[in-house]
Amino acid sequence: MEIIHNPAAMTAWSKVERAGGRSLALVPTMGCLHAGHLSLMAAARRRADLLAVSIFVNPVQFGPDEDFASYPRIFEADCLAAEEAGVDVIFAPETEVVYPPGFQTRVQVTGLSQGLCGAGRPGHFDGVATVVAKLFNIIQPQLAVFGEKDFQQLAVVRAMVRDLNFAVEIVGHPIVREEDGLAMSSRNRYLSPAERQAALCLYRALKSARRQAAEGERDCGRIIASLVTAIAAEPRACVEYLQIVNDSDLRELKKLTDTARLMMAVHIGRTRLIDNGYLLSKR
Ligand code: PAF
Questions:
Q1: How many CB atoms lie within 10 A of CB 194?
Q2: Which domain CATH number covers 256?
Q3: Which of 10, 23, 130, 186 lies in disulfide reach of 32, CB 3.0 to 4.6 Å?
């Protein structure tokens, strides 16, 4: 496995490999790799000859009061995990080479970025779209795999690729959960044991919404109200948003349809967790 820090060297590596007729898949990450990432890597591996993983904690997608400084960085352990997962190349640039002095360009996906996480994290998706565009240009993969846990991010990246004609196929990969249902996330390591238990209220909410849908409830307002009440019973939890949206354009739904997806952001103590899932159909 190669480890490349320099963008020009990364592009050169990609060009040489692809000139040999081999296809290249990318899994973009901010490191702190867990089983969810490994499953993205396995999905990418199945679809291409070569697998690149980027590890870059992207400052421009964090707000001023967010956890950029404290975001877990465990580069050595990540390299070992990536090597075991059969990764061919890690791209791990320094912040200063990604955003050198004078950097002044942003990619903005307007509509899809505004609601849900975009409402509570202004500028977050501009930061994501900007760095993903840069990673695509530097690494030049044919396909890239993103987790559905960040469902809005996946939608934003798909829109960017379509609107700016990137020749990269975007593959969404289902959420990987712990045995008790907690969606895997690098931020789960911030949770104390009591908060880890409290965090299960997100998965319980998803299961409750699915149960109500299966029993015939179609009124999204009533489902959301019941979930808000259930989560409010957990003293460590504070809801940022709970919405049922149409999964392609993320518009809020009043009546449940086959394309309905529950989207959640809940703070457990100081840790912000997100989760989501279909309610009626598994599409
Ligand atoms: O999902 C993430 O880890 C990040 O948002 C991404 C896509 C690597 C961009 O920094």
A1: 12
A2: 3.30.1300.10
A3: 186
